[in-house]
TrEMBL record, chains A, B, C:
Protein's recorded name: UDP-3-O-acylglucosamine N-acyltransferase
Organism name: Caballeronia arationis
Keywords: Acyltransferase, Coiled coil, Lipid A biosynthesis, Lipid biosynthesis, Lipid metabolism, Repeat, Transferase
Assembly: Homotrimer.
Gene (name only): lpxD
Segments traversing the membrane: none
GO cellular component term, pick one: membrane
Family: Belongs to the transferase hexapeptide repeat family. LpxD subfamily.
Top EC class, one word: transferase
Tree of life domain: Bacteria
């Protein structure tokens, strides 16, 4: 566990507060060098309280310091010998400090282009970029400052990568796509493949049908704003005419499919295995659960939450939580209910018949 | 938008009609150089009418020419100064012209093998093929005329790629698979990985179970006919004994899984995130919606449509549309219905009891 | 079909029994060189009986020998001229023999590193390993005996690969992950990408919401035990603090997503397109069907079976089969039932009203 979190280097609480904010309660000169859960931390480690149920652990922890909110600090009775950094959001603070410790412990990649990489003379690669083995960069591409392209990445013609972009191994970015600053794309993801569009050119019906599907050229691209993260083997298709757009700070998990000409609003989060068909417009601050399916040409308002495995076939115009999935139950019980479900109209008809019979009786 | 659609070159309507068919109404010498929607096109652009609701835009468009069906042309009252190409299928015509404009605007790839590619001396690569950076082609493979293998593509032993095949970056084709002429495979797709087959070799039950899964060798391959298109990160497994077969002009979207020994009938379309288990036989001209799941060893007739997120567990022997998915509704409402759903048998029993009580009364 | 199964070399039944066990009934010197189904096998081929429904074919087969269980052999009346290898599990025996024939027929890969591969001087690669074209191995990685890394594979810093591991083309293994002996990973799979974790750091509600998602560093890794097989384009995320763990002999199909900090128990099988959210614990000997979704932070007991497309949102503490999926039916019929389903509470209320009315009548 967590070898990346012990760099051997330590930092004072005063220095943490200087870099990340927060108020120190206790010894500002206490040094910490890594992070650990409350119940496992030792005197050289920083712990955090983000969930009320761990409040009792604060009084017994041996951590060098605890990240805590002011409201929670006031609930801690026995604070003797404990040090705190008081911050409104201990979990986010923890995340930032953890990243800083990792950066300290990770060997810095040397800027430059690996000799095995294939860079078109017409591409423009910042001198501070780190281009890995067997990377391909085609003509007209522009690679920003400190961008990191891991082994096997392929960058198409005219792609623009912002500063501090990190593409993990074997990512493919098709021609003409743009990725903003600090975008992270995990291994195997594909940005800008052709959207799925074919014009039917058939005559006749049934067995007599002849003709073919004619490919609709996909001449838009994908435009990804800054601070987006995209998971492994996720696919985001290029637009047919206009671009597919991913707004700032959208977070997309693994194996997600986003169709051509979608727009995903800023700060929206999409969990793994979700699929979003073409030309759909998802608002800002939405949360799309795992394996959710969303039809094409629909619009989701800002702040919509769709729970895992649900299906959205129409626009959702109001914020709120939407669902259409059942939890698994005993197989035999399910089949019994499912059989009745398939004949709900018969059940309804029997109720109608009963109502009619009772009405008739009333008349007697 | 659409930089690929403005090449600077223009073409007369007469030349379009010569290449793509259709009858010209108006000035055959009018020149167009790109495509645009009816309401945005200018005099140098070609627009099209494929949907009745845009018919009024035809009378106000400034397009250099409009692709239109004869039936629709007859509905246009004010045609002064407008030029038309009359064709039975304006949308398919549009697609073909758009592709031609793109081909004009796209720098032609130079035939030949990139110096960083690794081609086994026992492979046979057509001189007109375009082999990109870091491509690997193993022994016995045959690469057809004008085939384009983008960066990072890996072609296994004995693979046959037809003429004009285009494999986008980082596609993998396992040994022995065949791809017909003009097949397009998008980035990251995997053709011919082992099907999922293991013989249970266990003794004992429950906690006492010991043994292991024994891998069933997968010695078939994947046989893909001409004009098939396969989406990014899609996976099509090789057969166990015989081949997995994809017939001509099948179109498969991204992140689709097709199990070993499936056969997908010609002209069938499969949307993103669908999964088809092994040994299943899908007919011709079917439409499989996004995220549909189809069980193994079933058969779908020709012209079957399965709507998005539905599950098929038995053969569907008649053409038609099939469904098993619910649209998402307000979370609290759903949970209320779902709770009753899980106890539908109790609801049914109450109805039975009511029926019995009424029957009894009748007897009084 | 099955070119890989005919090597031109043959083997006696006596030799098969020596290598794979079983008792010979008939001529131990009979030679076979490949495998075939009972109804297609000739005198030089080995067939097997694993399914009672093919029992009649045993009496008419022309196979050189038949793999059969003792119980089934006793049901065969006419055995004249037939040879058998009697084994408790003919299907598993078949699988092992088939693999042996393939190994004989497949040209042995030459140990060594392809000249185009990029191996960090700080990595340790066994001399017997086979490193393909354009492979990248970073510092501190250790590659075991006879490990086979196909073209385009990328191995991160400090990865440990056991003996006889086989990674197919374009697989990515992130830094610090461990793969046990004989692990097979199919093309495009990604092991050890960052888990999906972000701390919300927002203030305000609705349109006034501002702030961002703060990435939670993922400092665990993925720890995969021996004899695991992982399908094409599957993704298994690294842990946040501790490791994601895949126990021995787990078999995972294509396009499966396994979230950070999951533990998958030994011998469990997971079919294609399934998604398992973070921190979930799946028992031993479970069977997870295709496209199943499992929520995060739940536990499945040993020997749980979840049928295809079902969703698991709570822990399943008892072995058994669980389901929540409907099979697709005629679209119009489905919509009728679905509409009633959405208003099940009204149906229930009508039943209540009927019960009340009848009760009242009773009192009359």
């Amino acid at each position: 566990m967590a070898s990346g979190m012990t760099s051997g280097m330590t930092i004072t609480l005063a220095e943490l507060a200087r870099r990340f904010g927060g108020d120190i309660v206790g010894d500002a000169e206490q040094r910490v060098g890594s992070l650990a859960p409350l119940d496992k931390a030792d005197a050289g480690q920083l712990a955090f309280l983000a969930n009320q149920k761990y409040l009792p652990q604060v009084e017994t922890t041996r951590a060098g310091a605890v990240l805590i909110s002011l409201a929670d600090l006031e609930k801690v009775a026995a604070r003797d010998g404990l040090n705190f950094i008081v911050t409104p959001n201990p979990y986010a603070y923890f995340a930032r400090v953890a990243q800083a410790f990792i950066d300290l412990a990770t060997p810095a990649a040397k800027p430059g282009v690996h000799p095995s990489a294939s860079i078109d003379p017409g591409a423009k690669v910042a001198a501070s970029a780190v281009i890995g083995a067997h990377v391909t960069v085609e003509a007209g591409a522009v690679i920003g400052e400190r961008a990191k392209l891991d082994a096997g990445v392929v960058i198409g013609r005219g792609v623009k990568l912002g500063d501090d972009v990190h593409l993990y191994p074997n990512v493919t970015v098709y021609h003409g796509c743009k990725l903003g600053a600090r975008v992270i794309v995990h291994a195997g993801a594909v940005i800008g493949a052709d959207g799925f569009g074919f014009a039917p050119d058939f005559v006749g019906e049934g067995d007599a049908r002849t003709g073919s599907w004619v490919k609709i050229p996909q001449v838009g691209a994908v435009d990804i704003a800054e601070d987006v993260e995209i998971g492994a083997n996720t696919t985001i298709d290029r637009g047919a005419m206009a671009d597919t757009v991913i707004e700032e700070c959208v977070k997309i998990d693994n194996l997600v499919q986003i169709g051509h000409n979608c727009r995903i609003g800023a700060y929206t989060v999409i969990a793994g295995c979700a699929g979003i068909a073409g030309s759909t417009n998802i608002g800002r601050h939405c949360m799309i659960g795992g394996a959710v399916g969303i039809a094409g040409h629909v619009t989701l308002a800002d702040h919509v939450i769709v729970t895992a495995q649900s299906g959205v076939s129409k626009s959702l115009t109001k914020p709120g939580m939407y669902t259409s999935a059942f939890p698994a139950v005993n197989h035999a019980d399910w089949n019994k209910s499912a059989a009745i479900m398939r004949n709900l109209d018969k059940l309804r008809d029997r109720i109608k018949a009963l109502e009619a019979a009772l009405d008739e009786r009333k008349g007697e």
